[in-house]
């Protein structure tokens, strides 16, 4: 394609065929299945926020295979929208089982939900096997006229 034609096609409809800046297959209606993210080494971080309030729409086992964190924050508190998603919590177990190293991982739920409680109870043995700790805290922070649950994290 000539340079001027390439320039027009990329400027004529900016963002077309891109999802989060990644080129997608225009024939597919599902951005998740059409992302062409190159494989690479995993990324190690101290703290990672599980995307989209721990919704299954954007997070799968591949996220946990590639983003390896000492701490994962789960902020979902909307059962009607599947947040947090049991499938995402299960994906953490699946992804962590592929690490090949038994690094300590701490899961920090920001809300006490039925989904996280059930997942914790039903998968407790697997969590121990994978060296995953779920941080529970009954601490409350009071700011002005508002109070909310909180956890202290030290690095």
TrEMBL record:
One Gene Ontology MF term: actin binding
Ranges annotated as spanning the membrane: none
UniProt cross-references to InterPro entries, sorted A to Z: MAP1, RibonucZ/Hydroxyglut_hydro
Biased composition (Polar residues): 22-36
One of the protein's GO biological processes: dendrite development
Span list, region Disordered: 1-36
Signal peptide: none
Protein name: MAP1A protein
Gene source species: Mohoua ochrocephala
Gene field: Map1a_0
């Amino acid at each position: 394609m000539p340079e001027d034609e390439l320039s027009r096609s990329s400027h004529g409809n900016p963002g077309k065929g891109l999802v989060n800046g990644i080129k997608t297959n225009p024939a597919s209606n599902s951005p998740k299945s059409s992302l062409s993210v190159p494989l690479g080494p995993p990324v190690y971080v101290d703290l990672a926020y599980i995307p989209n309030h721990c919704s299954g729409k954007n997070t799968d086992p591949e996220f946990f295979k590639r983003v390896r964190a000492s701490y994962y924050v789960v902020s979902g508190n909307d059962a009607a929208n599947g947040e947090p998603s049991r499938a995402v919590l299960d994906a953490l177990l699946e992804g962590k089982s592929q690490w090949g190293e038994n690094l300590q991982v701490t899961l920090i739920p920001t809300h006490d939900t039925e989904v996280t409680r059930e997942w914790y109870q039903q998968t407790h043995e697997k969590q121990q096997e994978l060296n995953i700790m779920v941080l529970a805290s009954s601490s409350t922070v009071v700011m002005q006229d508002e109070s909310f649950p909180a956890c202290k994290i030290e690095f």
